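$ fold --in a.seq
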Amino acid sequence: MNDPSTARIVSLIGEPACTAMLAPLMDGRAFTAGELVRAAGVPAATGQRHLALMVEGGLLRVTGIGRHRYHRIASPQVAAVLEGLMQQADRCAPALRAARPGPRDEAMRRARTCYGHLAGRLGVAIAQRLEQDGALVFDAESCWLTARAAVALAGLGIALAPADAALQRPQRAFCRPCMDWSERRAHLAGHVASTLCRECLSRGWLQREPQSRALQITPGGQTALRDWLGPPLWHQVMAH
C-alpha cells in the first residue's frame, strides 16, 4: 500500500504487539525480526505479519546486511510522531521486554574487532564523533568521509595518506557503514576503519584479549580516546 490512510497508520501504532516492537527501535538502533518478535512476546507468525504491515505502512524500513535483515524506524519524522504518541501513553503502557542483542560478555560489548576494524561501543562512538565533526556522512545504506576528515583524525594523531584525501564519495571498500552486532548502530568499516584499528593497536591504546575478539582499552588508550571522543561519548563507551 503506497499511500496508507491515517486510520491504518494509527491502527498499526495502537496494536500492542506493534508498540512493543517499535519501542526498542526508538533510540535509533536496528533489530532483526526475531529479536523484535521476542521483545514483543508474540508468536513468530504474528510478529512477522505486524512487521510486514509496518514496513508496508512506512513506519519501518528494512536493511539487508549479509544474511541478516535489520528493521529500523523509517525516518526522523516517523520517530517524532511515534515518540509523541508513546510519551502520551507512557503512564498506561505495560512493561516491555528489553531487546538486548549481541554478546553477553561486557568486554566484547565495549570494544572488539570486526573483520579488521573496531566494533562495539568504542567503534560506534568513533563513528559518532566523526559524524559530529562533519567528517563522516551517513546516507541510507552508505557513508563517506568529507574534507574535514583529515583534521578530525589529526586530533587523534592519525594522518590520512594523500591518496586517502580524495574524499568525494569514495569506493565502498574505502569507507562503509557496518551494523554493529551489539549496539545496532553503525560503526565504520573499510580501509580507513582498518587503519584506525591498526593505529590503536600499534600505539598500545588497545590490546587483544587472548583467544577472543575482545579488545582491552589500556590506560594510555583511555587517556587518548577519552580526550578525543569527549566526555559524553566516552561515558557511552565505558557504561555497563
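$ fold --in b.seq
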Amino acid sequence: MAQVSERESWRRGERQRLIALRLALAPEERQRCAAAIEKNLAELLAKLSGTTIGFYWPIKGEFDPLPLAERCGREGRIIALPAAIAPGAALEYRAWRLGDAMEPGRHSIPEPRERRLVQPDILVVPLVGFDEERHRLGYGGGYFDRTLAALSPRPVTIGVGYEAALLPTIYPQVHDVALDFIVTEARVRP
C-alpha cells in the first residue's frame, strides 16, 4: 500500500464497509452498545477538567451523544455543536442547549442557528474507524483535522465509535493527528 492512490482507495472502501456494518446493527445490539458507550464516555468526561465540551450531531448510525451532552449541560458545563462554515475551513463551535433553534448545515447536518461561538476544552468526535495508535478514520472531508490544527490551545480529543471499527491501521497521513482517547462499548483507550 505504498502509493497514495492505493491508500485513498483503501480508506474509501473501509469507510463504506464500516458505515454499512454500523447501519446493519440490530436495534437491540445498537441499544446495548449505546448504553455501554454512554457509560464509558460519561465516566471519562467526569474525570476531565474543562468547562466547554464540543459534541456532534449523530448521522449514519453513529452513537448519539446528545442525551449525555444535555446531562453535562445540566451539570454546569457549556455544550457546543460544530458548524461547517465553508468548504476547506475549520469547523466553528456554537454553544447549544436542548430546545435551541437548529438549521441544516453544509452537509444537511443540523447546526445551532444562533452563532454563539465558543472554544471547546474537550472535543468529542465520531469515528468511522480507528487504530490502536488512536488515529481516526473520518468521512474524508478533513474538517476535524483542520479544526484541530486551528484550535489553540489544543483541546482534549475523544473519538467515539464501535469496537468493530478497530482497524490494524488507518494508514495515517501527515495531517492525521492521534486522538487523546478512543471510547467504544468495550473500553476507553487512553
